[in-house]
What does this fold into?
Amino acid sequence: MRIFLAPMEGVIDHHFRTLYSAIGGVDICVSEFIRVNDVAVSKKVFLRDCPELQHASFHQQRFSATPNGTPLRVQLLGSNPETIAASAVTAVNLGASAIDLNFGCPAKTVNKSRGGAVLLKDPQLVGEIVRQVRAAVPSERPVTAKIRLGFEDRSLYMDNALAIAEGGATELCVHARSRADGYHPPAYWSYIKKIVEEVSLPVIANGEVWTVDDWRRCREQTGCQDVMLGRGLIACPDLALQIKAAAAGQRYQAMSWSAVMQLLNQFYCDTKAAYPSRFLGNRVKQWLFYLQMHYPEAKVLFETIKRYRQAQEFEAVLGLPLASAAYE
Ligand SMILES: Cc1cc2nc3c(=O)[nH]c(=O)nc-3n(C[C@H](O)[C@H](O)[C@H](O)COP(=O)(O)O)c2cc1C
It folds into this structure.
């Protein structure tokens, strides 16, 4: 069984990938989407968005990975097969462990410029993008795809899955909802099972796995061994470890709030220098927004700090008295 850390634009960046791969349980990370227009993406953009690529050559396998060696796949989004393929080659030459193609983003601005979920209306184009990227990227580097079940409805889910398989993809991640379904529960896991039965590709199940019980039901209903976790893992930092323990039949002591506080503390320190001071603490507030779904303490902390702007304020509640002097 493999557990993937989902790509989440504006949420799961390299800071989060580093933190989460260190917590454990995550086997593979996927970058936030990188947009490809009619010009291929430059090295500079890849290195900015996926700093893990800078260290690709330090890892034994010589591919992009977080500092503890968890492989990073680079996700591309666009509709021009030639420039996506050229961008994929650049990413692979920089050391991307795999290329993932985004056919699921629901954002209006992205869909308007023919990227993400809107492409699911055109399985032929989806297949062509996969085919050209597969042809351009050395065969030892996986080319994978991530789809939703459709755009306005779920009628083309199988056509898209088949087109991706015929295009030569290595594996397929399915977020079990159409764009029209948004992020509203439920996720329609039974569609994933049909894909698993029809398509000869390894399939990764995704959508609405918040607990070990959700994972059990998802596995039963999809038949998938592999799962991708997004919001559930952000809300519960050791969910991947809990699932791994459950899969191995081992007892597991869930992460305490004080352990989460240490992670928050670490995250604050990791991110504070990365943003202009007017955004100080925003990443911690964003994470707390998700954590409060799992930890009541996070709700209290969120209410306390939501209007904070000053380093001393944050650092006092996060237990960082020494850091404040250095930062001011
Ligand atoms: C804020 C946000 C940003 C996302 N960004 C991406 C992205 O860049 N690429 C992508 O393939 N999916 C993206 N997704 C979708 C997630 O990867 C995932 O498919 C979805 O959240 C369902 O999984 P979950 O229920 O485990 O969160 C995003 C989702 C959210 C909520």
